[in-house]
Design brief:
Aspartate Aminotransferase, domain 2, binds pyridoxal-5'-phosphate, alpha/beta, three-stranded antiparallel sheet, 41% helix, single chain, 461 residues, Aspartate Aminotransferase, domain 1
């Protein structure tokens, strides 16, 4: 901010290159929506104006990162770009072993492939879906123990992403520490609305892990965003830099997994860092089999160069303030417009309560899908349903077992949209609210056996 009590949330960057967007009319969008079986995943991105499908890999790189691409060293082994990345990551994490991967899930497959197996159990504040899938694929069980406040979606609490420490201890006692593959602390807690984890909670998790001799993994793809919340919401951190706070969090972990597509500020990439030499050697063997040689993993030299720069930029205080406040800005304005959403807002996304917005649409007619389609039809905005389309199950006699909530996620790409784009999103919601009572639900006309939200086709009821 340029002066105290500044009200305008001016972006701390200016635009050097533009990507023109196509302006479409409602008739065009309705025809595209029909062709896509009313599933926005099946739309072409060029038909979308504001794409809030995900914050993963959709950010804009800086001029320095683009310059870094030109400096990429594409040597097979020991490339200069690898050393830049390795030095940066060692300095940031304090961990001696760094493995580059093509994205977060590759790091997960390698690490959990070694730690998992039948009879093993993994415990997390909340497993992200690829984390859970990689764990369950080994035959192991993944158990989520978010803190009690996380289920209250209306009352403000500082750290709804925390892990339930009592449950952690009782689960380790119940299964026995040898059975626990790892405890995984996800910061911010993506699947619990991007809510932050406090340093006090992280330390308490560490203490339990140390007491029982259990490995602690930090799934930290939004570690910089989490550090922002610690500095501004937890006592004793106001004088620390965001990077120092992140270092404090790395210090408690035995291993760190990162999807660099988030706080790495790049479009593709991942990291696995470890403290244990033995585990690092076993992981490196798997890395070489499936990702690539140890000094590039699944990445090109230019990717590694851009990531090394992104990991530094993401801790810039002006960037982080803009990042968190611009997400909050959308949440605050939607809330003022009477749109029901999860509170407080998370770091990377806003979650709309579609069931509250469309109380007349029953769960088996998917209120979240109705909102996702209306957002596109009215405003060319793409979002994602996080409700019974994504998580609902069907019984043998065709009955829907609904998800716990019917949500729609608006994920905010980093450094991509301006405040006027976000004002436009608020305006579209205001219109949808006016016509909410007339909005109809959807039925599924085709679905695949797994992960149906990606490819299912719908029609309006
Ligand atoms: C995105 C994400 C992953 C997986 O990373 P990919 O790069 O998409 O493979 C893992 N954990 C969390 C918390 C994530 O948000």
């Amino acid at each position: 901010m340029y002066f105290e009590n500044q009200k305008t949330l001016a972006e701390p960057f200016r635009i050097k290159m533009v990507e023109p967007l196509k302006v479409t009319n409602e008739a065009y969008r309705l025809s595209k929506l029909r062709q896509a079986g009313y599933n926005p995943f099946l739309l072409n991105s060029e038909d979308v104006f504001i794409d809030l499908l995900t914050d993963s890999g959709t950010g804009a790189m800086s001029d320095r990162q683009w310059a870094g691409l030109m400096m990429g060293d594409e040597s097979y082994a020991g490339a200069r770009s690898w050393h830049h990345l390795e030095d940066e990551v060692k300095d940031l994490t304090g961990m001696p072993y760094v493995l580059p991967t093509h994205q977060g899930r590759a790091a997960e497959r390698i690490l959990y492939g070694l730690l998992g197996g039948k009879d093993k159990v993994f415990i997390s504040n909340t497993h992200f879906d690829t984390t859970r899938a990689n764990i369950e694929f080994t035959g192991a069980t993944a158990i989520d123990i978010p803190c009690a406040e996380s289920t209250d979606t209306e009352t403000w609490a500082a750290f709804k992403g925390n892990m339930d420490i009592e449950k952690l201890e009782s689960l380790i006692n119940e299964y026995g520490s040898e059975q626990v593959g790892a405890v995984i602390l996800t910061v911010t807690n993506n699947s619990a609305g991007g809510q932050p984890v406090s340093m006090a909670n992280a330390k308490a998790v560490r203490d339990v892990c140390s007491q029982y001799g259990v490995l602690l993994v930090l799934d930290g793809c939004r570690i910089a965003e989490n550090s922002y919340y610690i500095r501004h919401r937890e006592a004793g951190f106001g004088e620390k830099t965001y990077r120092e706070i992140a270092s404090g969090m790395f210090a408690i972990a035995d291993a760190f997994i990162m999807s660099a597509k988030k706080d790495g500020l790049v479009n593709m990439g991942g990291l696995l860092t470890l403290r244990s030499k033995d585990l690092a050697e076993r992981c490196t063997n798997l890395l070489i089999i499936s990702e690539g040689f140890a000094t590039y993993g699944g990445l090109t030299g230019r990717d590694m160069e851009a990531l090394a720069i992104g990991l530094r930029e993401v801790f810039n205080p002006d960037y982080l303030e803009y990042r968190i406040k611009s997400t909050e800005y959308l949440g605050n304005h939607l809330r003022e417009a009477g749109i029901p959403l999860l509170w407080p807002t998370g770091g990377h996304a806003i979650y709309i309560d579609a069931q509250k917005m469309y109380p007349h649409i029953p769960v088996h007619e998917y209120p979240g899908q109705a909102l996702v389609c209306s957002l596109y039809q009215t405003g060319a905005i793409r979002s994602v349903e996080v409700g019974s389309v994504m998580f609902g199950k069907t019984t043998d006699d065709g009955m829907l077992i609904p998800a716990a909530k019917e949500l729609v996620r608006l994920a905010i790409p980093r450094r991509v949209y301006t405040q006027s784009h976000i004002d436009y999103v608020v305006e579209v919601f205001t219109r949808l609210k006016e016509t909410a009572a007339a909005t109809r639900g959807y039925r599924i006309v085709w679905e695949p056996p797994f992960l149906r939200h990606f490819t299912a086709r719908f029609e309006p009821v």
